[in-house]
Amino acid sequence: MKKQGVCVAVFLAMYQIFAAGGDHRVLAAEEIIGAATQTSATSEASALSDPMARQAAEEAARQTGEAGSESAAEQMSDVLPHDAADAADTADSMREAMPSSDGDAAGDAMGQNSEGGDESLLPEDNLEDDEELFGMRRGVVHPYVAVGAEYTDNLYNLDKDRVDNLLITINPGIWISLPGKKQIPVTLAPNNASAGGYQYEMEDYERTDRFQIFLLGDLDYRMYSEDSNLNETMFRLQGFARYNFPAGLTLQILDAYTHNQDRFEIGHPNAHLTHIFDSNSIMGTIDWLITEKFQVTGDLSLFSIVYDEEEFNYLERDDLALDLHLFFHATDKTSFFLEYKYIDTQYDSNDPYDSTSDSYYIGATWDTTDKLSFLLRLGLRDKSYDDPQFKDWDGFVFELQSTYRLTEKSKLTGNIYRQNEETDMLAAEDKIMLGAALGYDLDITDKISFGIRGRYENADYRRRAGYSYYTDPDGDPEYNREDDRFIISPRLDYLFTEWLKAGIGYRYEERDSNIDIYDYYSNTIFIDAKVAL
User: Fold this and answer.
1) 475-503 pLDDT, tens digit each
2) Entry pTM
3) Closest CA to 97 of 245, 256, 235, 217
4) Other C-beta atoms within 10 Å of 66: how many?
5) In 10 A of CB 237, how many CB atoms?
6) Fewest C-beta in 10 Å: which of 116, 184, 191, 291?
């Protein structure tokens, strides 16, 4: 009888992996594919790390568990992010490091590179058969592939000597989850410019399974019509393991390794440099749900980045970060928290930029209605440089992320943030980033969906003592550099089947700087197709 029981268990497990049908796996792969296929050098890439893409994916994961009454096509349309173009950022975007369903992961000029899971009961409470015991639910293995073409009229993001280009991308990949999931349980989106490697608040993940293991790997082949020497194969490897103990204690470790590139940038006399980098972020987490009301978490992480080209050696660094939270869960849907974060930033060869910082935050998350949800995080950051010639910085930092569901088929997403980030030029100590983003998603029919993203970002560079940028029109070399950047990107998608989706979109990007050489604008048209099994 024991042998028969084992055979039945094995048969059920194999059935779930290979034979179970009706699985909308393209939904989960979409956010992964969108992040990779949109990280081209001509895209917004990471500089505007896209919290909205993350927010859309997070919302999709939440809605998946509630969509039992919807048709398969409706679920598909609702879950798929509609901003593959903006996912190029960022893939850049919603929380810092986040085990939440995000989408953006890409790189940008020192760029902000641009994370939910399905609801389920704890296995120890509901083990009804061997299928659940072995965790072989539908969606253990998810292969996918995306093919895209992108035309831009300003490949190198220059004000003068503009160059057009046709970029072809092929992005195969696979992700594996145990227990099986229909939605990717975590997307890690490191942000190169942010101290500690992550820009946004880490989401309080759900304790839905006793254990969770996740692995992802993909390739991104890029072929440029303007110069074949730019052709490159990017890749990323991600994974995490989490175990939830019965007493409310959770241990987790995650890692994200990326071989990618910042967007083409005029930040160096040779504007045609590739800006290719390798980054790695590893984080360990201890989380203790003490009571139904109180929860404490601690994260220890190490973020490292190196560049292929010697011209960017001054940007290479290692960040060690300690992040502590105390949560008070007022209700099932409303929480308040206190946070302390310490970051030690050490540059490999550019020692004057070494620094330490202490940050103190208060915050709240609210998701009490079917219409509105938000996260608010307010804080003070004190940044001290090791070099006495550098000017320390202390100031107000914040982020506000929100989703407003207008109807069952449409929603608005928004984000506002202010943060001190690492510099991407030798003449500045660091930069103060202030940004706002707004997105709108609409399911026109079961097959057709529309999305539009808009973003504004201001970068205020703090000039390094003894350095100047370029003489301004009045002949004063002592002024600070300040950039305003605007992006708008509509996109239209068509769902052919539950495993095939195609889209077309447009992106306009402009940077207006008080130093004319940094000005540019670009127009980009893109089309892509995605398949997931």
Assistant:
1) 555 568 899 999 999 999 999 998 999 99
2) 0.74
3) 256
4) 12
5) 14
6) 291
